[in-house]
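Lab channel / #folding
Pinned by the channel admin:
"Please post every new chain as: sequence first, then the structure tokens as a reply. Keep commentary short and put observations after the output so the thread stays searchable."

First post following the new format, from NK:
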Amino acid sequence: MKRKALLCFLFILLATAFSAVAFSGAMADSAKWPASSGKGEKKNGKMQLDVTNISEGYFMAKVQKKNTHKLKLRVVKGKESLTYDLNGSGNYEVFPLQLGNGKYEISLWENVSGKKYSSAGKLTITVKLKDENAPYLYPNQYVHYTKDSEAVKQAAALCKDKDAAKSFDAVKKYMATSFVYDFVKAVTIKSGMLPDVDGSFKKKMGVCQDLAAITACMLRTQGIPCRLMIGYADSQYHAWTISIVNKKEEFFDPTAALNAISKPKNYTVERYY
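Reply from TO:
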């Protein structure tokens, strides 16, 4: 009897270990993570870029040395431009190449006094994406998450053994039933504050950009391209998502799903990440 019990116990341990490996393997198969080969670095002035994986839809940027001044990163392609805050820690941040194929001018600007900024570096890169939706499969500054993020783990459990369409529906249902809108944060939030995937997921509460970023995180890690959209819902500044499911665009507004705003009639896009 003791031998039989021991064999049963060992079988349970092996089964549990196999399930854990299979579970983590499923996450690894779908989720994509920024990486560097160490051979794609470019430097100019105080700016350093890693362009190893620009064909995958992203680049990384940082200051070469720790900097206490406010820093702006400007990304220009043709007549389109995007401006980001860059941290001064000297650690890389990830930025999407959502403006598509072509030549990008990336410049760093350093605050010198008041609202005045001076040029601190400029580089040009030429981008040819493997897939036009590649930028929306990786974490970036606006949709920031890591392998340890609880939203990533939840998505893997929620979407296990589901196809893209069912995974999309599962994430929508989860967002609509598991979160509440943070009305206090909505009236106290400061300009330029980034979405908080980890903090908002832990509290199960956030404003529109937090909820949209969590949605994007969960879908991206399941291999579903998802854009975090920023613009206007009627006249209200707002954030929502557009996903690519089976080659079709799928709209989802998690804030509206929570009935935190009146159902907008018109959405106007300003930018997306």
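NK: The chain has two domains: 41-131, 150-272.
TO: also worth noting, Residues 2-30 form the longest helix (29 residues).
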